Amino acid sequence: MDYYQQMLQRVDHFFAQTRGRYPASFACRSGCSGCCKLHLSLFPVEAEAVGKAVAELPPEVQERVRAEADAVDACPLLVDDQCAIYESRPLICRSHGLPVKFEEDGKTEVDVCPLNFEDGKIPEDAMLDIDHINELLVSINMFESRKKGVDPGLRTRMADIIGKALMGLMLVVFTVGPAWADDFKAGYESWKAAREASLRKPDGWLALAGLFWLEPGGNSFGSGDGNTCRFPSGPARIGTFVLRDKMVEMTIAPGVAVTSAGAPISGVAISTEAPEGEQKFSLGTLSWYVIVRDGRVGVRLKDSASPALSGFRGVPAFAPDVRWRIPARFEAKASTREVPTATGQSGTMKVAGLLVFDFNGQEIRLEAYDDGGKDLFVMFKDKTSGRTTYPAGRYLYVPRPDAEGRTVVDFNRAYNPPCAFTPFATCPFPPRTNHLNFAVEAGEKTYH
Q: What's the confidence (pLDDT) of residue 120?
């Protein structure tokens, strides 16, 4: 912990020097607690220091802290507006009040408490390079965490740290996570490899070659100009789709070798209520199946010889960064949500609840959806959208919470929706409630 303490002392020294140079520009004083919020989350090295300090508080102070444990807007470690663990407070609590400079979208930005430097004139020597300090914190956390054999990317909410310390639990519980807290880098590389392998599959999203919405009655299909559904290749006339009620009757033209499950067919009836893709049909490199979207019935076409598939060379992405792996709590709240889609019509999503987490002292609430899989599905848009990432937003899967409602939102695994690769997808897009007011510089970038 020596390196960690040295880093904190360095920030304290900078604060003292800056306040000494510009005393009239600082409103910070004893009892000022406007920035003391409970919804902070800390790296393992910080959590250990805070937990130890809480555990060593006098019993009467611990009782005061315990009595305030359900506070919503303020940290329960505030006792009579004074921090009970002031000497052990984490980095973010020490840098609050200082003007901090950081890089965002290639520009240097400056942020400061609105009560300090009210004239807006901030000298360069008063600005703390918070990017550099955060890089130090990440390195120190990595070093200390690996020594203890814990996941350096797992962050713990301040409320959980305080609660465990007051219960007298061993400090290691602050850093040891559940089964999904695997080695960060290895976990990311494994995920990325699986993601790109999925895109390379001959029937994956890059193989999409057409999307045809059927009209009631007959819909001819094939590569010829006169077809209702014009395929990019294959015989001029392959057959006809007839849409009646909740059925699609497909008839194949004589001499055309269409197969299903490896067996030749001349015709078949397809229920629009059957699971999507249950019946697939093939002809050479082409394959297709019936889909239903918000009452509309269509045919999705794929081509294993698609130029998009053969020309795929991977998806650009931000370098993985443990700071974007953020602990969250899940608040169950079942409902439905109408969302925009790539088809221009709205779609209905099944809402599972909210993922609540801290980002730079701000409480973020992301709506999560239940798509029937083992994880929660999230769609979000942020300040990188349309700049370095796909304009409409990105997708993310989040592990379902444990028994205490805890999970991790790992933005490093944010990925492009299928419509980033093809115009034939029917992607849902994030609703306004999931538009973030900061740049998520993690996960996949725009695909070119």
A: 86
Predicted confidence at residue 36, as pLDDT, reads 76
E-only strand ranges, 229-344: 229-230, 239-244, 247-252, 259-260, 263-264, 267-271, 281-283, 286-293, 296-303, 325-340
Q: For residues 132 and 12, what is the distance between their CA atoms, to the nearest angstrom?
A: 15
Residue with tokens 């519980």: 173
pLDDT attached to residue 31: 65
Query: Is-contact 385 440, C-beta < 8 A?
Result: no
CA dist 10 and 7 (Å) reads: 5
43, exposed or middle or buried, with CB in 10 Å at 0-12, 13-18, 19+? buried
Domain spans, the chain: 2-174, 205-310, 315-434
The DSSP 8-state label assigned to residue 193 in this structure reads H
Torsion, CA 189, CA 154, CA 108, CA 443, rounded to 10: 30
- The beta strands (E) that lie in 198-280 are given as 208-213, 217-222, 229-230, 239-244, 247-252, 259-260, 263-264, 267-271
Distance CA 435, CA 421 (A): 22
Given strand 217-222, what is the order of strands in its sheet? Answer: 229-230, 217-222, 239-244, 247-252, 267-271
Q: What is the pLDDT of residue 80?
A: 81
Q: CA-to-CA distance for 440 and 383, rounded, in angstroms?
A: 7
pLDDT reported for residue 161: 85
CB of 335 closer than 8 Å to CB of 151: no
pLDDT along the chain (448 residues), means of 10: 85 92 85 70 89 91 80 74 89 88 87 88 92 88 76 79 73 40 75 94 94 97 97 97 96 97 96 94 97 94 94 94 86 96 92 91 91 96 97 97 89 96 95 96 94
Which CATH code for domain 205-310? 2.60.200.20
Could you tell me which residues are beta bridge partners of residue 339?
Answer: 347
Position 355 scores a pLDDT of 96
pLDDT of residue 182: 45
Verdict on whether the full-model pTM lies above 0.85: no
Rounded (to 5) percent helix, strand, coil in the chain: 25, 30, 40
The Cα–Cα gap between 133 and 143 comes to 15
Give the distance between the most distant pair of CA atoms in the chain.
90
The partner residues of 327 in beta bridges, in order of sequence, read 408
User: CA dist 146 to 111, 139, 183, 189, Å?
Assistant: 33, 11, 10, 19
CA dist., res. 170 & res. 385, Å (int): 42
As a whole number of Å, the CA-based R_g of the chain is 28
